[in-house]
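User: My notes are a mess, but here's the protein and 2-acetamido-2-deoxy-beta-D-glucopyranose's SMILES. Can you give me a structure?
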Amino acid sequence: MRVCLTSIVISVFILLAAANDEFKEEIFLKPLPPTHLYSFFQFITLVNNENSFEHAHLAPRSLSEVISRFHVEELHLTLTEGQWRHHKWGYPVLDAAPGAELYAWFSEDVEDVDTQWRQLSATLSGLFCASLNFIDGFNTITPRMALWPSGAFKQNQNVTSQLRYASLPREIVCTENLTPWKKLLPCESIRGFSSLLNSRMIHNTNYHSIGVHFRRMCSNKECSQTHLEVKQTVSLVFDYKILKSVDWSLRKLFGQGLPGGCPLASSSQIYVDITSNDTQPFKLTPQPDKIITSQRGGSDTKLALYNIKPDGVMMNLAAKYGNTDKIIVPQPPPLHFNRYVLGYGKEFGGIVTEVTNNYRSPISIVLLENAPWWLPIQLSTLRINGEAESKLVLSQFFSPGRCRQKPYHLELLLRLPARSTTTITMDFEFVFLKWQEYPPDANHGFYIGSALISVNLPTARNYTSLPLTGSTYDSVVNASQPWYPAVFRTNGAMVSLPTPDFSMPYNVICLACTVVALAFGPLHNICTKELGLKPTAKKLTWKQRLLGIFKKKQD
Ligand SMILES: *[C@@H]1O[C@H](CO)[C@@H](O)[C@H](O)[C@H]1NC(C)=O
Ligand SMILES: *[C@@H]1O[C@H](CO)[C@@H](O)[C@H](O)[C@H]1NC(C)=O
Ligand SMILES: *[C@@H]1O[C@H](CO)[C@@H](O)[C@H](O)[C@H]1NC(C)=O
Ligand SMILES: *[C@@H]1O[C@H](CO)[C@@H](O)[C@H](O)[C@H]1NC(C)=O
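Assistant: No problem, the inputs look usable. Here's the predicted complex:
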């Protein structure tokens, strides 16, 4: 009886602790006129336990064990295929670099951050079936200015020294990454919004990115208490050309309707950005539950809101456009950028990052350039708008790379004048790699990761964010703040390094094989055939000889 009572008490305690957990799911749909549609999924699990995931029943156990084991304070992992086109699509809710990108802050009590970081990336590599185990000292940097934690941190903690950042631009994202990602959700892909995410439709998009974000958040205004947040995100950009029509619906986008919300979720909501209805009108069926207008930074965003019940009733949200003859040319957002490689031949080259400020006042940005060790960039060749000394640079940090050990890392705090384009150029030399260091398809080229641009936008034009959902005390998304923090990634670039002629061994093998094949026959003959003596001809009479000649002729 006593045992039973104790276990009941314990389970009540566990239930009470677990009752504090919260899970929310959201879909955000935004038409990007004239040709694309953006959809963003976020699944947020809040663990209202100050320090650990113990007794948390909704948080993904495999991930939470990794986080506790390596003393991670904040973690961001994204796996992305395709390139977000900022000048055409505006800004995404969360930007991500092409390929795999991982950055994390470790807790203060971690002393050997580098070892911990390598172990963390190797563990996550197993968890997400991605090649994160290739992260090592030679492709890891510690950004000084570009990245700041989005969660709660102790006031006087040195956040820089506990941060590590790495990106793998070559990583290819596919189904085998999505499946373990879905397993982390409380409803997996059986119920709720995640049941829409089937890989057949996702990999049919122009851009897709899956992410896992973990951080610690303040529970009250003074931040004396904190809780943990795990956010799983998916960004997809659909092309109307692939959909074969401008009208879209959940069934068309994901191959099936929505079978209700996840029963474990405290809220399941769909937001549709209907701001573009002013330029390209469309009708939504069914009617939204509510229309929200959010005003920030001088621009209005109208959102249609749907509350989805976990009743298992199939729902299909559809948009039907009226007249679509009008040609819409989207205005570029306040800040946009481009990156490309200069030079010809196989000796010297240059890498150029162009940043355009369209806004009416100057904007300060932090630009982080990160070049692999096999692309030595020299600080002395840094030119801004063609000048070596520029007044635009307010502060800079450079850490030279070391062969096979450390990448090149440059950070610039720049003040971009109003309505201007700034070009940042650096020269590099091509190096020869060792022959085992070339990838199997060496002539394909080598990827250079994206540059990071960290900015506090002075305007909310083309800025995309969801209404406050995660927590009331989210320091990053505060609608009444006069600036909008964002970190963008430029497009990546590709260089073709001097590559040895890998076909030579093949040619040699072919030639050698031919020679052997040709020589084999005669040699075999000689070695295996028995040599016999011909019987010597008897002395013939002249008659027999004559007959012999005739016989030959008859033959
Ligand atoms: C933080 O750590 C970095 C790297 O270890 C160091 O360069 C920097 O001076 C530290 N900052 C402070 C405020 O202690
Ligand atoms: C778009 O605007 C039209 C009228 O201008 C209105 O009838 C329609 O309901 C609007 N669509 C949405 C999704 O609000
Ligand atoms: C950015 O926003 C402005 C006004 O809000 C709009 O005219 C423009 O088309 C948008 N640009 C993009 C690329 O979304
Ligand atoms: C949001 O920003 C405004 C203006 O800076 C500030 O007054 C307000 O306290 C902030 N809200 C939160 C919840 O931090």
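The chain has ten helices and 25 strands.
User: Great, I'll file this with my notes.
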